[in-house]
Design brief:
There is one protein chain. By secondary structure, the chain is mainly alpha-helical. Helices cover 55% and strands 6% of the residues. The chain has eleven helices and five strands. It has a three-stranded antiparallel sheet with strand order 1-2-3. A hairpin with a 2-residue loop joins strand 1 and strand 2.
Length: 341
């Protein structure tokens, strides 16, 4: 039996019939639970099988998913887990509270994927993309990704943004911390700069957008794992242990949703590597030459340039924050002693 490779937007955005909805700290959130109490991501009933079918078809043509995973970003994190735990144990939880809040605020920005219109790659790709995932970007795939991140506020259903705020409040309870400032950009600073003049700017920018989005997802995965471990640490949140465990469960559900995003992005980029682009001068250029060059620039920024800048900035901010503590100088000395080499 031939696998289905063409889908409507209605199909790709269809959810399972849940036995019960996801409700956390009074918030109605997306997704739900099956009869055995297992979490099932939203809009996954057809989307997940479709991703698998397109992946098999890509491999049958000799291609594969973009070869990348979150281990690319396995270097130094500041503060590291031991430092973050130290801060929490010494009444300096604002840093972790800020992290959870900023994550939710950044997730909310992802809603723009549901509102943007992307160029049709069929207009510039030599091969027929109607049976590929890249032929469905404007047919539900990117809309579903965006709504996963930013929810459906018009229906009273929260996405990842509200999920992060809900789990933060579960773990911390009421606080008087001020709202943190969110970075203007979290991708490569010149991500929209046209670096491949052989194809029109709109397509170059879309490719770079997808590549940066994948790198952001990898960075998020490391942060999500980090957050879950802290929330499950029995030596932390001792007066809210049950709530912290529930908060960690919510992080697990977000991670299940994000796995779909990572597989999707690796698929889109793998398909784009496998096709040929019609250039401005009428020639054909293998997609891998465009994708791989841009990806290497993004990887260099995310693994070499950005971590150094972020570590210096975080070290200064946290040092200033710790010194405001009544026992600041002693705590700062112990905090700095926990730094990675």
């Amino acid at each position: 039996m031939t696998a289905q490779l063409v889908y409507s937007q209605e199909e790709l955005c269809r959810s399972h019939d849940y036995a019960s909805p996801q409700v956390v700290a009074g918030h109605r959130l997306h997704g739900g639970f099956d009869g055995d109490g297992r979490y099932v991501p939203p809009r996954a009933l057809v989307r997940e099988p479709a991703i698998e079918a397109w992946t098999r078809a890509l491999r049958a043509r000799g291609g594969d998913l973009l070869a990348a995973d979150s281990s690319l970003l396995g270097g130094v994190r500041y503060p590291n887990e031991a430092q973050q735990k130290f801060l929490l144990q010494n009444g300096l939880g604002q840093t972790f509270w800020n992290n959870l809040t900023i994550t939710g605020m950044i997730e909310a920005r992802g809603r723009l994927l549901a509102d943007m219109s992307f160029p049709e790659f069929q207009d510039i790709v030599d091969e027929d993309v109607s049976e590929m995932a890249i032929g469905h970007l404007n047919k539900g795939l990117l809309w579903a990704h965006g709504v996963d991140e930013g929810g459906e506020p018009e229906r009273g259903i929260g996405g990842h943004d509200v999920m992060w705020f809900a789990l933060r409040d579960l773990a911390f309870g009421p606080t008087d911390f001020p709202k943190p400032v969110v970075p203007e950009r979290i991708g490569r600073p010149d991500a929209e700069k046209q670096e491949e003049p052989e194809i029109p700017a709109a397509y170059e920018q879309t490719i770079n957008f997808l590549l940066n989005l994948l790198m952001i997802e990898f960075r998020a995965e490391i942060g999500f794992s980090f957050s879950e471990r802290l929330l499950r640490d029995p030596e932390l949140f001792c007066d809210r242990r049950e709530e912290a465990e529930e908060a960690a469960d919510v992080v697990c559900r977000i991670r299940a949703d994000e796995e779909i995003h990572v597989r999707s992005l690796r698929l889109y980029l793998g398909e784009l590597r496998s096709v040929h682009f019609r250039t401005r001068d009428g020639n054909l250029k293998p997609g891998r030459e465009i994708i791989d060059d841009s990806w290497q620039r993004i990887v260099h920024w995310a693994t070499v340039e950005q971590p150094k800048l972020a570590a210096v900035e975080s070290r200064k901010l946290l040092s200033d924050r710790i010194l405001k503590h009544p026992d600041g100088e002693r705590l700062l000395e112990r905090f700095l002693a926990l730094e990675d080499a």
